[in-house]
User: What shape does this take?
Amino acid sequence: MRDFTTWLAGFRSAIAGYKYYTDFEKIYKNVDAIKVELNILNSLIGCEDIEKEFVALYSRYPEILKCIPILLAKRESDILTVDFDGEHVWNFKRANYHIEEYVVFMRETGLFDLMKQKHIHNLVDYVTGVETGLDSNARKNRGGHVMEDLVEGYLVKAGLERDKTYFKEMYIHEIEQKWGIDLSCISNEGGTEKRFDFVIKRPNMIYGIETNFYASSGSKLNETARSYKTIALETESHPKFKFVWITDGQGWGSAKNNLKETFDVLENMYNILDLDEGVVEKKLV
Assistant: This one.
């Protein structure tokens, strides 16, 4: 029997590589896509009569409108505002209001003041900074991908081949169709769909694998642990399918009680240290 406390003590604080913190390649690509329009808008910086100049600029270059949302750190082309006249949904991909009304939007959001008072000197540089800030929100997703890549490396090291003996991102219905097994026990009789990060196919067993890494705490951890405990119990007696959970990260410290409940019922629950010690070769191959 494995000891949960000892197992949890082996969790890592981070798995981030150099590219984890900021994806500059994506940032530069996003900025380049609107660089021409941003440089056109640069002509408004320092203008005294900026509202009049904006209208004149728009009449010649209506494509500048698409740059407005990112100046407010918004990626969506539609922006909702509410005032005494009610709700307004501003479309910046294709104008749905008269340009004079967009002047009000620019004035009230503070964008005209930003440019007129020279709080910034170059919109391309400014948007690069905005994109960098927005990209930090993607770190959580990147963390998930880093963990997937790490686990995949161990699968390959164990001699498994992608799309032959292991498969990435497979839904329950795909597993059922490909190998003719019944997984209704975890699909609520086909009413719900579940996707596994990896699926390993062995002669007498199929392993559905979930992977994640939590560097920080949060309410999602308890939800994840409870959900995976349910899957563990639902598949416990399945003759041809076993659920595998590979997780790590010191964020679990705040949700260790829920994690232990799953640990107690899920035989195939591992961390990175287990992978280092050859658990794939010993248990899954």
